[in-house]
Please model this.
Amino acid sequence: MSLRVVVSTNRIFLRQFSDGDAENLFELDGDPEVMRYVVNQQGTLGDYHERIRQYRNQYEEEGGHFGFWAAIEKSSHEFIGWFHLRKTLIEGQAELGYRLKQSKWGKGYASEMAIALVGWAFEEMTVQSVVASALVDNLRSIRVMQKSGMQWVQNYFYQAPDGTRYPAVKYGIQRESFKKDT
Model:
């Protein structure tokens, strides 16, 4: 099976996940610093195989426009993390998300691909807005949202599956604002 490249920038590209990526995801989520601002805990290797099966089903259901994708560094062909665009409960809205290996932080990869995905959402899809959320202490992630053109929308409390509430922030950009900035 050929793995479709979804979006590409000068330094990284996003491709569909393969069965072999379960180990990559397991390793990524096994880094306590990577998971510092993530409420969900690491699963088993079997859990990651199941996630990839779900991601691949989603590619078919959504025609390849929405989903989770493996982020690959072009120069090394190394798995460096993942990005996603997924539908929200609001019609015409997509949510951007990302997680990168700690060794790739501070290199501009997250901002580079976030900018590319926002552009792709508006240029290739009928999306009217793109949003992203982070815990309020995750300043790096918030900065990525800002660099991608998003503006503050609201502060709120994210409720974890165990009922714990965490202060979070949401940023977003509308199609009209994107057109003005490009």
User: Anything to note?
Assistant: The domain at 5-181 is CATH 3.40.630.30 (Aminopeptidase). The first strand starts at residue 5 and ends at 8. The chain has five helices and eight strands.
